Give the backbone structure.
Amino acid sequence: MTGLDDEWFEFDGLGGFASSTVGMCPRRRYHGLLVTQPEGFSKRHVFLARFEEALDLGGERFYLSSPSYPGAEPHPGLLKPRSFTNEPWTRFAFEQGKLRVTREILTLPGRRAVLCRYHIEGGKKGDRLELRPLMAFREADALTFENMALDTRVQRVGQDFSVRPYGSLPRLWMSQGGSRAKFEVDPLWYTNLEYAEDIARGYEGHEDLWQPGVLRLDLRGKTELILAASLDEPIDDPAATWKAECQRRRALQPVEGDLRSRLASHASDFLYRSQEGRLGIIAGYPWFGEWGRDTYLSLPGLTLTRGDLDSCEEILVGALDYLDRGLLPNIFGLGREDSHYGSADASLWFVRALRLWQLAGARDEKILVRFLPALIEIATWYRDGTGLGIHATDTGLLHVGGPDLNPTWMDAQCSTGPVTPRDGFPVEMNALWYFLLAWLEKLLLQSGDAAQAREWATLRKKCGKSFVTRFWLRAGEYLADNWKDGKPDRSIRPNMVLAAALEFSPLTKKQRQGVLAQATAHLLTPRGLRTLSPQDPAYRSNYGDGWDERDSAYHQGTVWPWLIGFYCEATLRAKAPTRKQLDELQVLLEGIEPHLQEAGRGQISEVFDADAPHRPGGTPAQAWSLAEWLRALVLVQEARG
C-alpha cells in the first residue's frame, strides 16, 4: 500500500491524542501513542512514544514498525501493512507467510489512556512477539535526551507494571488483557532517533527515548493481547474496555460513500473538555491548542451542521467569562489572566457564530437575556477604542492594528515585521463590524430599547455608506482588501469573499456577484481559495518547508480550505444559483475526498500550495478546514433540495 508517511489520529476528548504515520515510523516529535495534557499542566506531553515491535519467527526477525536514525535505512525485515484504516478506529493488517497480524489502536473518550490490541493467527511453536515500550515523558513541543535524573524503577503487579521517570509528572500504568505477555525489566535508552518532518520544517529533530523493559508473547495458534497505557489510573479490564469502546464507535460509523457523513463523523474530533470542565475546540492537531478565532469560525460547522445546538451553546456561553474590554482571546488559558488577547476579529467571529446558532433554532430569549449585554459590550469597546489598535473613526469604519501589529487572521510575522501588513481598515473586519451593528440594532428593537437601537442604527448607516465608498472598486467590480493612508489596497484576496458572504451587509447583490467573479477567476482552487491572486507580484506559488519560506507564503498565495465555506455562502447570497451551478459546487466540494486519504487520514489539512497539484501543508488535521468544508456541503445540498 502507499502513503506510509501519511498520518493518523485518535482523540481522547481532552485535547490529547495518539498519532503516528501509517508505517508507524515517527516523523514528528508530536507522534506518540499517549500524548495528552496531564492534570495541573497547561501543555500536552508525550508519555508513551511508541512500541518497538518485533516478530521472532523461527529464527528470522521481522518488524512491524521502525524508528529513523540519521543516514540509516529502516529495520531490515520491516513489514509494510497490507491494509490500513482509521475508521471507526485505527487498524493495521500484516502478513508474513501464514502468519496474520492485526494491530489496532484506540483512545478512550474522557480518559488519558490508549489501548493497543494485537491479534495474531497462524503462529507456530517458537514464534514470539516482542514489544518494547519507549517513553518520552516531556512536553510535546520539546525533546528529551538521556540523563541521570530519570528514575528507572519499575513497579510490578503480576505482568502489569508502572513507571514514573520524573517525580514532577504523573505515573504511567501499563495493564494487559486477553493473552498475557511476560514482562522483563530491562531499562535502556534508544539514542539519536530522528524526526524527518521536524527537520524539514526547520526544527531540531533528534532525541533519545527510554525503555523500561520488554514484553514477550508466545504466538502459537490464535493469540490476542490488549495493552492499556493510562495516566489517571490502571485500567482494570482492558479487554472489556476495548469491547465497550468498539461497540460505541460502530454505532457512530458514517454512511459509506457519503462525504458529508464522513466529515461529520470527524467533527467531534476537535471538541474537547478542559481541566476546568469547559467545552472548547482545538484549532488543529498535532501542535495547536484552543484558539479564539479558530474556535468561533469552526463552531457552526463542527456543531450546527450536525444539529448539535447544545454543544454550540455551551461553547458560546463559556466565552463570556473570557470577555475582556470587548475582546476574546486568541489563545485560551485557564482564565483571563493567562490567556492571550492578540486577535482583533475573535469577538466578531463570536458574534457571527451566535447569530448562526440563533438561526439554527436557538430561542430568542436566550440571545436577549444571556448574550445581548455581551454584544453591547463588544460593540461599545470596539467603537470607543480597546486594545490592538481597534477603534471606530468618524467615518463609522473600524480601524485595526498598527505598523508592527497585525491582529487579523493574516498575521504571519518575520524579523522585519508583518509579512502581509493590513493595519488600517481591513475589509473583512469592517464587514464583520457592520454585521454586528446591524444585528445589534435588530436585537435592541426586539428587546424594546428603541432609543439605543437608533443610536447603533446611526453608526451602522454611516459605516455602510463609508464601506461602499472606500472599498468598492468600480474598475474591477470587487472589494479592496484594505484602506490605509487615504487609498485602497487593490490586492485580490479572499477577505472580500468573507465580506460578501455575510447575512447583514451594505453590498448589493450585484456587488456580491462582482466579488465572486473575481474570486472565481483568481482565487478558487480544488482545495479552497488562494490568499492572493497569481497575477500579483507578491504571489508565492509554494508553501515551502523551512520557517521563513512558510511565513513568507502563508498568506501570499497559499490555499486555505476553510475559505470554501464563505465562497459557497457568498454564491448563495449573490443570486439564486441555477441547478447547474449548484451541481458544479457539489462536484467541487466532493473533490476533497482523495485528500482524506493523504496527510491526516480522514482529516483536512491546514493549507495547500497555491499552484497545482496543491501539496498539503501545515497541520494535517485543522478544525476550521473540516468545519467549513462540511458547512459548505450542507449549504449546497440544502440549496439543491
About this structure: The radius of gyration is 26 Å. The chain is about 30% helix and 25% strand. The mean pLDDT is 96. The first helix runs from residue 196 to 200.
